[in-house]
């Protein structure tokens, strides 16, 4: 217990240095950006230590760490207890901040704008993160936390992604379902993909196109597959002549 308050009990075990909080920033990306990859430029305003901070610090034995001071509290005659309290003037162990220091008029930290390059690699998933170590806010006596960009995929109008595979729905007519068809459509990056059949298609039959899914990271060019579910559009009604022709054709 005493060790946790920095009193050096039980041999004075090493206390881990504190960190400022990590900062999570969501980035909305399209399926195309996750397919081909993209480099984004971002700026971030953070707090950094004032360049003259050391001149604004003074020795203070009561300070036992950033924001922590220890005071004595008398419990009974001849018995005194050290009590840990919150003290924002403490910037480090044995040091406190000089109030109204002219060298750092805004306090121990000041604003700084940094510029970052966010590399979205082909095949990344929604929920993946891109981390920049120790570039979050700085604070006296703390290690800066991490800045973490989290990818959030915008739903695509045509494709649904499941891992490295893509899924879509293709509408075909009843005639195409019976005699075959050829469909051409644009892929995520704009290249054309062809689906064709020369035999009967059943309702909700799934058609697989190998290698037309999403890039698989770390696989040297491998991709998942594309699965197209074929939906048959039935006519609302047939004329008698059409019925006669169908019956004749199906005999």
SSE inventory with pairings:
Blueprint: E1 23-29, H1 31-36, E2 38-49, E3 57-65, E4 68-76, E5 79-86, E6 90-97, E7 109-120, E8 129-132, E9 147-153, E10 160-162, E11 165-173, H2 174-179, E12 181-186, E13 192-197, E14 205-209, E15 226-233, H3 240-250
Parallel strand pairs: 1-9, 11-15
Antiparallel strand pairs: 2-7, 3-4, 3-6, 4-5, 8-9, 10-11, 12-13, 14-15
Number-wise, the strands total: 15
Average pLDDT over all residues: 88
Distance between the termini: 91 Å
Helix count from the secondary structure assignment: 3
Classified by CATH, the class of the largest domain is: Mainly Beta
Please trace the helix and strand order, writing H or E for each element: EHEEEEEEEEEEHEEEEH
Cα shape: rod-shaped
CATH homologous superfamily placement of the largest domain: Urease metallochaperone UreE, N-terminal domain
Could you list the spans in which at least 5 consecutive residues all have pLDDT below 50? 1-14
Helix content: under 10%
Query: Mind summarizing the main beta sheet?
Result: 4 strands, antiparallel
Structural class: mainly beta
The CATH topology name of the largest domain reads: HSP40/DNAj peptide-binding domain
Q: What's the arrangement of strands in the largest beta sheet?
A: 5-4-3-6
| CA radius of gyration | 33 Å
| Known CATH architecture of the largest domain | Sandwich
Number of domains: 3
**What proportion strand?**
over 45%
Describe this structure in words.
By secondary structure, the chain is mostly beta strands. The protein has 3 domains: 15-50 and 108-155, Urease metallochaperone UreE, N-terminal domain (HSP40/DNAj peptide-binding domain, Sandwich); 52-107, no CATH class; 160-250, Urease metallochaperone UreE, N-terminal domain (HSP40/DNAj peptide-binding domain, Sandwich). The protein is 9% helix and 45% strand. The protein has 3 helices and 15 strands. The protein has helices at 31-36, 174-179, 240-250, and strands at residues 23-29, 38-49, 57-65, 68-76, 79-86, 90-97, 109-120, 129-132, 147-153, 160-162, 165-173, 181-186, 192-197, 205-209, 226-233. The strands form 5 sheets. Strands 5-4-3-6 form a 4-stranded antiparallel sheet, with no helix packed on it. The longest helix is centred in the last third of the chain and has 11 residues, at 240-250. It is rod-shaped, with a radius of gyration of 33 Å.
